[in-house]
Design brief:
Strand order of the largest sheet: 1-2-5-6-7-8-9-10
CATH topology of the largest domain: TIM Barrel
Number of domains: 2
CATH class of the largest domain: Alpha Beta
CATH architecture of the largest domain: Alpha-Beta Barrel
Radius of gyration: 21 Å
Bound molecules: S-adenosylmethionine, iron/sulfur cluster
Distance between the termini: 38 Å
Helix content: 40-55%
Shape: globular
Largest sheet: 8 strands, parallel, barrel
Length: about 475
């Protein structure tokens, strides 16, 4: 086994996090401004810098922190927002995570693993809405064929073709695997492998994971090493905020990022920041042990944007429409829309008796797109990077000098145009076309000519025009 794969989570150093948080002081506004000036170079921040920013509470400094995050987001991601939908294939689970409705001891939940025919049907519904990316989600227990069930499901999703529509990127959020199983997953053509540590704090982790394989903190926290060793370049890490002090978690996330950079030369592709939401059969989910207020939530999004400027940040429909809008400006680069968290939920609608948790944003994809476009953001269905081999280190090499913008802007506009022509309602189409024209007008001559050519191809009926 390569030395890059580690077996314990010793790289999460609780003592160092405690020391950094203890030493951080915001009384010194000059120090905060120094850190914000460093962040403006878009080279990331150290743990100590992040600790200082996390203790900022003065409204003026907080305003400066938010403004710095906005600038970083604009410089790297412009006004694009990538869209996806989760696809829950099964709620079977052998673990006992006290916050989750799928936990094995929740006898109230209606259990269901979708058949391949049902998965095909769910995919068709999503494709007909205009989605191009799905995040496959499952509990940690699979029907008879074992993990092969997940591989079959990925193949089923990719097989669906409907008119101009298809799913072009399947990301996956399932329990951590061995290196050979990760290799099989890689072979199935996935985009990102997502796995959230939930909490990096060992004591809190043990208190809420009380049964099943997920009790093993080390197996989980080293999961991304095994995934990357197996050749999965794009991995997505995350924390379930509300289980422990968010300041600790943000610093621990940084330690995880730096460890992956040390071992593999590249950090995670994305970071997710779910907050604990009410869940059927879980008292804890309604009363988180360490609730994160909306202000702190915005703060942590802004800090992460500055700390790891080139890592995508994902905001799900757990959050309300309003809060989601606010965090777009602070650094979020991907959002889900029109989501269901119950297996079969797209065909049969939202059902709380089989869902994982309550959603905060119930709007349809078209409503979210219209809203996002009205706010000036360009909804993107682009999947080009991964399909042209721009993953892992290649993606970072491209992203770091800011070049990604030159590919992403035209791709975002051409995939948005596809959406408008094939799926947009009349009102959305009007707003969308105006937004596309505005962006094309503002481009320099070379990019404008190139983008116009791509848009012309889409308008002439070509699809999946990549650059
Ligand atoms: N079973 C796998 C696992 O636990 O890693 C993958 C799927 S699990 C359904 C995906 C994520 O849902 C978990 O990692 C957790 O962060 C999140 N989750 C669980 N319960 C939640 C709740 N009550 N509110 C918000 N997110 C929750
Ligand atoms: Fe199962 Fe994942 Fe829910 Fe835990 S969070 S009970 S592992 S589905």
């Amino acid at each position: 086994m390569s030395t890059r794969v580690v077996e314990t989570g010793a790289f999460i150093d609780e003592a160092a996090i405690g020391a950094a948080l203890g030493a951080a002081s915001t009384k010194d506004a000059g120090r905060v401004r120094e850190i914000l000036a460093k962040a403006a170079e878009l080279k990331g921040l150290d743990m100590e810098d992040v600790a200082v920013l996390s203790s900022v509470s003065d409204p003026e400094l907080l305003g400066e922190l938010f403004a710095a995050a906005r600038d970083a987001k604009d410089a790297i991601y412009g006004s694009r927002l990538v869209l996806f939908a989760p696809l829950y294939i099964s709620n079977l689970c052998s673990n006992d995570c006290l916050y989750c409705a799928f936990r094995v001891r929740n006898k109230e939940l209606k259990r269901r693993a979708l058949t391949q025919a049902e998965i095909r049907h769910e995919t068709e519904v999503l494709v007909d809405q205009g989605h191009k990316r799905v995040l496959l989600v499952a509990g940690e227990s699979y029907p008879k064929q074992g993990f092969g069930y997940v591989l079959d499901s990925i193949a089923t999703i990719y097989e669906v073709k409907r008119g101009n529509g298809e799913i072009r990127r399947v990301n996956v959020n399932v329990a951590p695997l061995s290196v050979p199983d990760f290799k099989a997953l890689k072979g199935s053509g996935i985009g990102t492998f997502q796995l959230f540590q939930e909490t990096y704090h060992r004591g809190s982790y043990a208190a809420v994971h009380v049964g099943g394989k997920k009790k093993d903190y080390d197996w989980r926290v080293t999961g991304m090493h095994r995934a990357m060793e197996a050749g999965i370049d794009d991995v997505g890490i995350g924390v379930l905020f509300g289980l422990y002090d968010w300041r600790f978690e943000v610093l621990a996330l940084m330690q995880h990022v730096r460890e992956l950079e040390r071992a593999f030369g590249v950090g995670p592709h994305t970071i997710s920041m779910p907050r604990l939401e009410p869940a059927n059969g879980s008292d804890m989910a309604s009363e988180p042990p360490h609730p994160v207020s909306d202000v702190d939530f915005r703060k942590l999004v802004a800090i992460l944007r500055l700390a790891v400027p080139y890592t995508g940040m994902i905001m799900s429909t757990r959050e309300t429409a309003n809060l989601r809008r606010e965090t777009f400006a602070l650094g979020v680069s991907q959002i889900s829309a029109g989501s269901r968290t119950n297996p079969g939920g797209y065909e049969e609608d939202e059902k709380f008796d089989s869902a994982q948790f309550q959603l905060g944003d119930h709007r349809s994809l078209d409503e979210v797109i219209r809203d996002v476009a009205e706010l000036g953001y360009v909804p993107s269905f682009c999947t080009a990077c991964y399909r042209l081999g721009r993953t892992g280190m290649d993606f970072m090499d491209l992203a770091k000098p800011g070049d990604i913008k030159h590919h992403c802007d035209p791709n975002a506009l051409s995939t948005f145009e596809e959406y408008l022509l094939d799926y947009g309602t009349e009102g959305t189409r009007e707003i969308g076309e105006r937004l596309i024209e505005k962006h094309v007008r503002e481009m320099d001559d070379v990019r404008r000519a190139h983008t116009q050519k791509m848009l012309d191809k889409v308008r002439a009926g070509e699809r999946d025009v990549l650059c």
